[in-house]
Design a protein that fits this description.
globular, 8 helices, mainly alpha, about 150 residues
Length: about 150
């Protein structure tokens, strides 16, 4: 059960099965977060509903990743953290700000150049697996809200 949830319902396992490498698994997890965010947007869910779902996914990520997390291991196929971080990025957003927030969050997670993302990743265990994506998602959220304010 942990493996299926940690891999965002198996999405994180696809690249390894197809190519023998986990490269790209995080993007598949992020895509699931975007789909969930899009569905919440389509049903006109209040911002707090998206925030509650994101919070639930963060807690789920901490639970599901725990058995696969060494001191500082972050298995590539574990991508529920990307799903959660992506959903954090789109809380309360619509239109272009929503799309830009997704891009900023994903790039922030991939390149880890934004302050705090690398430090969050260095935390031990499931906390480190999840925290860098949440921090990147918060950057995306800030940029998205900034654009929405313009």
């Amino acid at each position: 059960m942990h493996r299926i949830v940690a891999s965002s319902l198996g999405l994180g396992l696809i690249p390894g099965r197809l190519r023998g490498s986990d490269a790209g698994a995080g993007t598949l997890g992020a895509a699931l977060g975007a789909v969930i965010g899009g569905l919440l947007l389509a049903v006109d869910a209040a911002w707090w509903v998206t925030a509650a779902v994101a919070g639930t996914l963060i807690a789920t990520s901490l639970w599901a990743a725990r058995p696969f997390a060494g001191a500082h291991d972050d298995p590539g196929w574990v991508c529920i953290d990307e799903t959660a971080g992506t959903l954090v990025a789109v809380i309360g957003l619509t239109g272009w700000p929503w799309a830009v927030a997704l891009i900023v969050a994903r790039l922030g997670d991939i390149f880890k150049v934004l302050p705090g993302v690398s430090a969050a990743e260095r935390l031990s265990g499931a906390t480190g697996i999840t925290a860098d994506d949440v921090v990147a998602g918060l950057y995306g959220l800030a940029v998205g809200w900034g654009l929405a304010a313009l």
